[in-house]
Write a structure and sequence with these properties.
This protein is 36% helix and 23% strand. It contains 14 helices and 24 strands. By secondary structure, the protein is of the alpha/beta class.
Length: 500
């Protein structure tokens, strides 16, 4: 039998007790992994073990895929009308709302993000996403095409089947919602792998999925490592589609495994090195506030973080002064403290990776304006860091750091900054700050990125697509566009009178 995780939260932000099974979730049941091994879940504020969860294996993936396939052929897919799928998804939304504070507390516990941000952004956004796709479940339709009078032709948008979904550790619950929402709305069954660093909200969601009344096997969750569970999902011959959010490096491996197995459909939402362009005529106070939010929110562990901050030469000195002052006010500390803006990085591995980039920047000759070192002596805290005097060839300018590290770069004019902004293998997002409408639109159109923000950053909505150009991914999350990731289009031709 899998163990039970019991924890008493006693913080000002949340007081309450949680208790739930930590097994892998297959066919509506919690169970041990086939090898009876476990994975420790670490509290990133102090490096101590919070609990252990069951470790899944390739054999467990096989069992989950079989359960998902059976459900697809009997109780879900084309056997569950859209109205039923919508009803069950709406029940899940109600349960998520009921347990919203608990979900936020779990997110803060194993991820390290602040409770307030988890509650007001992650959990609220997850609820909104599932609700949005519940509305789509009975509206996934094809078209009738006019051909000739002796023929009826139409299309059906049918569910793909069993889909594998692999989600990251930076927004565990939100990324689960982004994956579950469109897949369930379209009638697919799911085998999902959460990150081994942050599995708690995914496991807790399985209890809510059962409580909502989803048929067994519709959603299966296997906790485990990428090299075993992730690889088994992406290379499985009976998984019809795989969706992944994470690094570009791992995205390549998943795409390769998908191609070498059954050439399964692939959706990838990958890394970024997003430019944030601030022109001379920008509202400098707003530009500073948004720039700080753009790079330091979620501890910089955001795929669309505005990590390359381009400032026009006319306001560069004043912007840098104010930006440094703003950064100094950001409190780093306990995720459950009401005034904390930035908690710890998610893991020791990520902490060391970010610190290695900071040391690389220093060694290459970039100037640290503020930060550049760990915060405190316990846990995985890093001070918000700003670099200047960075050469475009430096690693801190070219590579995704995925931490609270920004680089401020001076530019001359529009052509200069567009050239620099597009000089990257990534193309996930970009931002422009200006009060000139023509300049805003022209610049947004010239940037090679899947999302372009004007006078804001990190602003997302469930009904607006999100995804990248270049090596930032394939396909789109969110909005109506995401539905196409989870349906196969069938053309039906009916002869009404043509005779041979």
């Amino acid at each position: 039998m899998p163990s039970t995780f019991t924890h008493e939260f006693n913080a000002a932000a949340f007081k309450g007790k949680v208790s739930f099974s930590t097994g892998i979730f297959i066919n509506g049941q919690f169970q041990d992994g086939s090898d009876k091994t476990t994975i420790d879940v670490i509290n990133p504020t102090n490096g101590k073990v919070v609990t252990s969860v069951s470790e899944g294996t390739a054999k467990d993936v096989d069992a989950a895929v079989e359960a998902a396939h059976t459900a697809f052929e009997t109780t879900w897919g084309l056997h569950a009308p859209g109205t039923k799928r919508s009803m069950l998804m709406s029940k899940l939304v109600a349960l998520m709302e009921k347990h919203a504070d608990e979900l936020a507390a779990l997110e803060a516990l194993d991820n390290g993000k602040t409770f307030n941000w988890a509650r007001n952004a992650d959990v609220a956004g997850s609820i909104d996403c599932i609700r949005y796709y519940a509305g789509w479940a009975d509206k996934v339709t094809g078209q009738v095409q006019e051909t000739t009078e002796d023929k009826l032709t139409y299309t059906r948008h049918e569910p793909i089947g069993v889909v594998g979904q692999i989600i990251p550790w930076n927004f565990p619950l939100l990324m689960m919602a982004w994956k579950l929402g469109p897949a369930l709305a379209c009638g697919n069954t799911i085998v999902l792998k959460p990150s081994e660093f942050t599995p708690l909200t995914a496991i807790r969601m399985c209890h809510l999925i059962n409580e909502a009344g989803f048929p067994p096997g519709v959603v299966n969750v296997i906790t485990g490592y990428g090299g075993t569970v992730g690889n088994a999902i992406s290379s499985h011959m009976k998984v019809d589609k795989v969706a992944f959010t994470g690094s570009t490096l791992v995205g390549r491996k998943i795409m390769e495994a998908a191609a070498k197995s059954n050439l399964k459909n692939v959706t990838l939402e990958l890394g970024g090195k997003s430019p944030n362009i601030i022109f001379d005529d920008a509202d400098i106070e707003q530009a500073v506030n948004w720039a700080a939010f753009g790079i330091f929110w979620n501890h910089g562990q955001t795929c669309c973080a505005g990590s390359r901050i381009y400032v026009q030469e006319g306001i560069y000195d004043e912007f840098l002064k104010r930006f440094t002052e703003k950064t100094r006010t950001l409190k780093v500390g306990d995720p459950f403290a009401p005034d904390t803006f930035q908690g710890p990085q998610v893991s020791e591995v990520q902490f060391n990776r970010i610190m290695s980039y900071i040391e690389s920047g220093k060694a290459a000759g970039a100037k640290v304006e503020i930060g550049g070192e760990r915060h405190g002596s316990e846990g995985y805290f890093i001070k918000p860091t700003i670099f200047t005097n960075a050469d475009p060839s430096m690693k801190i300018v070219q590579e995704e750091i995925f931490g609270p590290v920004g680089v401020v770069i001076k530019f001359k004019d529009e052509d200069d900054v567009i050239r620099q902004a597009n000089d990257t293998v990534y193309g996930l997002a970009a931002a422009v700050f200006t009060q000139n409408l023509n300049r805003a639109i022209t610049t947004a159109h010239r940037l090679k990125a899947g999302t372009a923000w004007v006078n804001c950053v990190n602003s997302l909505h469930s009904n607006v697509p999100f995804g990248g150009f270049k090596q930032s991914g394939i396909g789109r999350e969110l909005g109506e566009y995401a539905l196409s990731n989870y349906t196969s289009v069938k053309a039906v031709h009916i002869n009404l009178g043509h005779r041979m």
